[in-house]
Amino acid sequence: MSSSAQVFDDMKIAIMSRWNATCGVSLHAEIIGRKFRELGHDIIVYAPTLESADTDWHHRHIDVIDEPWVHRVFEETDEYLYPAGGSIRSEELLEDDYDAFILESVVRFPVNEFKRIASKIKKKAPLILVMHLGYIRDVDPFMEIDWDKIVVFDSRYVKEILSTYGRRVEEKIVEIPYPCPIFDDVKPIRLKSLEDVFLFFTFGRQPVREYLDYVRALRRLSEKYDFKYLIIRSDRGLPFRDRWIIQRCERPEMKMIHRYLRGSDVHLLPKGDTRAVVISSTLAQTIYSGVPIVVPDTRHFELIPVDENGFGPVVKYRIGDTHDLERKLSILMEDDDLRRRISKMAREYAKRYSDDFVAKKFLNLIKSLGV
Predict the structure, then answer these.
(1) Which residue blocks in 107-190 are alpha helix, DSSP H?
(2) CA distance to 183, 240, 321, per residue, from 212 (Å)
(3) Sign of the four-CA dihedral 225, 226, 232, 236
(4) 280 and 271 in contact (C-beta within 8 Å)?
(5) Consecutive H or E run containing 295
(6) pLDDT tens digits, residue range 58-90?
(7) CB burial class (10 A; 0-12, 13-18, 19+) of residue 187?
(8) pTM over 0.85, yes/no
(9) ω before 83 within 30° of 0 (cis)?
């Protein structure tokens, strides 16, 4: 059968989440939500007001207009007030009809307010939680709700967090990986002034310190090689003034990001170290581009297999070790065949966890709940 619509009856799926924002929570909801629509299902999105969500460092609305089925019906709380604070226009959630309700967790969600209506939503439709939270301290309030299923991206969320709550919670857990969007109809874009030079690329709004490894390694490489480093920032620019750095301020949507990537030679992905259970939504968003991605060996990427030298679907370097990074960047610049092999492995990795595969996993889960 060529379409999931032939396998599943048409459904209307509610998603409560950030939306159209520079945020991994938002990205997950957007990828599966839009794929649901592509597969023939309706969705309704309950999103936070921009005024409340934009007070969070991680959230910035991208340069698009919300779709007509997106309703901004809740106010996020402050991370230091959580789980108290915020508000929800509950009557809208309770009046609407839907066959399943998916909530994407975030540490600013007004969970105490949601607890007041969770049992009423469950009478209408199965209630599914998507676990983005990386510390037990943030998970406690969500575990006071009687979810039908809890979706995790990998087993670390179970071993390090959810096993704390015992069998009552563990029996509800389903593992569905973070999706990788597959774009085949994307044309590369590259500034004319950069057509004949090796091009490194970064986008996003990571803290300045997370760029330091790349900038310092590239400073040494600039003594031996001719290259440029294009940085797309969604907010203010970085303080670096090196002649080979080009900065632009944009918040491009996903296909435009892929156009930039495919017009580049190497993608440098900055991430800071953490002890939380985390994945990189940026990696998931970009890996199908096939452009080699260089990452620090943080927890965001620890489940991605690489060889003893750090090469695989991504290239890993020891975080803080600019000499290790310099060596690997030099190898990438000089070895065209290696870049092609990495590109092939990256695309194979993305296909294993494609948006189509993940969306159908969610649809199977919903059907297993009697919808």
Answers:
(1) 111-115, 118-124, 136-139, 156-160, 167-170
(2) 31, 10, 11
(3) positive
(4) yes
(5) strand 293-296
(6) 788 887 899 999 999 999 999 899 999 999 999
(7) exposed
(8) yes
(9) yes
Which one, of 266, 130, 283, lies nearest residue 204 by Cα? Answer: 283
Angle at 315 between CA 235 and CA 305, to 5 degrees: 115
Q: Which domains does the chain have, with CATH numbers?
A: 4-179+354-368 (3.40.50.2000), 192-352 (3.40.50.2000)
Beta bridge pairs of residue 229: 200, 245
Do residues 270 and 231 lie in contact, with contact meaning Cβ atoms separated by under 8 Å? no
Contact between 129 and 111 (Cβ < 8 Å): no
* Contacts for 308 with CB less than 8 Å, ≥ 6 apart: none
How confident is the model over 118-140, as pLDDT tens digits? 999 999 999 999 999 999 999 99
Tell me the residue type at 14: A
Strand, helix or coil for residue 86 = coil
CA 338 from chain centre, in angstroms, equals 27
* 206 Cβ neighbours under 8 A, 6+ residues apart: 270, 271, 272
- How far is Cα 263 from Cα 341, in angstroms, rounded to an integer? 18
State how far the Cα of 91 lies from the Cα of 74, in Å rounded to an integer: 11
